[in-house]
Amino acid sequence: LDRHKEACFVIMDVHLDKTLHGIERVPSPLELMALSAEMIGASRVSSHEIKFEAVKQIYYMSSESRKHCDPSDNISVVTLPEPGEWFPVRRQDVEGHGADYAGVVQRRRSGRNFAREPIPVGSFMRLISLVGTAPRSDISATPRLLPVTTGFLVGHVEGFDQGFYRFSSEDRAYGLLKPGSFVEKMARICLDQRWLANAGALFLFMANLKVLDDEYGARGYRYAMMDAGILGQRLYLGSAALGLGCCGIGAFYDNEARELLDLNDDSYLLYLVAVGNIKKRK
After folding, report:
1. Which residues contact 273 (CB under 8 A, 6 or more apart)?
2. Is the pTM of this model over 0.85?
3. Smallest Cα–Cα separation from 196: which of 186, 204, 205, 206?
4. How do residues 182-200 score in pLDDT, each as one tens digit?
5. Longest dimension (CA), the chain
6. Which contacts of 164-170 are long-range, i.e. CB under 8 A and separated by 24 or more positions?
């Protein structure tokens, strides 16, 4: 690997100890098959590389390490109001679903054909539980500051009033910030994608960018975006396991979203994931 431009993200050790999805057990580790010259050639995306000095400078300027500031006065707070009451996600509400992992991964995809039917409360509690814990990678190892704050807008969920809710990862509890119908308004803010208005709930991943910059330096924005993406993928897999539709949205008007959610001046919505029942095909 080119140590200046490349890095290994994942190493996977595969053991086939039993028959799984038609794959027979093998007595010894599989030998790697040598790639043909044609396949090696296909991996080249360009015959040569164009180096843009400005891109390189941007990368190194945003590689600044943490400043080790103490953000205790405003720990990643993004919303102006606070919930009047918190409700815990109980263990019995999120017992294992028993879904087949390989099958869930195969079915995982974006689904937008939402039906205005309430999401069962048990299914919704499982989804909340999936985003209720931080990814806990090295980028969010500081216990006093998590890069992303999670919330959700309820449109059609069994047992939930419509409104804007915030989730507390530390307490594994949720609370109502503002009652009201916000799903259709957010659909208009998301470049007028009207199908979003039919979703049962819109999960929101938000961050206070100033606090992140004070704590992590210029890399804070990267950390928040990566954590938001990881949490969004949890919702994709969870929705596939529960037979729900799921679709992530990154296109919206920043200022309008902040105004709708009553975020403070330093905070922004980073990513939105819509979840709901899908219309059945005839």
Report:
1. 202, 203, 205, 232, 235, 236, 246, 247, 248, 249
2. no
3. 186
4. 999 999 999 999 999 999 9
5. 64
6. 164/261, 165/83, 166/79, 166/83, 167/128, 167/131, 167/132, 168/86, 169/132, 169/133, 169/134
